[in-house]
Give the backbone structure.
Amino acid sequence: MTKAMAVRLLALWCGWQVLAAGASTGYGDRPAVRALVDELVEERGLDRDRLLQVMADAQRQERILEAMSRPAERVKPWYEYREIFLTEQRVTEGLAFYRAHETTFRRVQSELGVPPEIVLAILGVETSYGRITGNYRVLDALATLAFDYPRRSSYFSKELKSYLILTAEQQLDPREMQGSYAGAMGYGQFMPSSYRSYAIDFDADGRIDIWNNPVDGIGSVANYLRRHGWRSGEGVVVPAAASPEVPEAWFGLGLVPKRRVDELKAGGLRARAPLEDDTLVTPVRLELEEGYEYWLGLHNFYVITRYNHSAMYAMSVYQLSQRLAAGLVL
């Protein structure tokens, strides 16, 4: 063997070692992971060896970290964001989904007090009515975000714990379940803590299944809204007109409805539909290609934002629900 060949072989061997080290992305040996496992063993009595085996199989996913840096709610203006969801295809598919599960949607209205078109619209926005539920392993998504996404590490660590508890309770293999890049699951894209708190067995078959059972998926979304304070028979949002003197700061004060209608009217933001003067609302301004459109979000608008903390999300759900309702016999 020549010296040059030996050097090439050594370089090749070193490259293999680097690749092998890079491929070993399991989380089992990290101190933070072992601390989380200790908590689950102490608080829930889960099996330590089993948990360590599961976490050793969890893989860091760079594409998840990339996706977290560019959610549509933060990078797209309203006039582009709404085009993702307010499509003829989504309306057509929604009407077909409603007809296939009409009995369930009517039960949602009568038993949980949530309008079918709102639940239907959320399912449409979240997963195209269960057609697109995510192709990431939930374990990988939550581990990556819990241990390699410092900005929200605390939140995703709690969700990872909830996921491991959930899969133990439901006798599911935590390495098999799939969902979104953020770890959301099933028809309604529930995070694990939401699953454990709000998912329901709406068909009374003895098992809660939001992955494969549309009845449980529909009922669980409605139950989420009901538990977050949905007010049956009330509206969601009303259009508004704004004069030039409306303070810019009014549109950056969060999503909680805490401005009186008469106060806003005095400042130049007027409802285009009848509202009592003392009604508390959220001023909403959405960017168009030229200028803005203005809305006053009511209590139920705020409830929808509990599903996703974005006014654009809630408005997409509302406007899709109106298009769906126009095609339904409710």
User: Anything to note?
Assistant: The chain has 16 helices and seven strands.
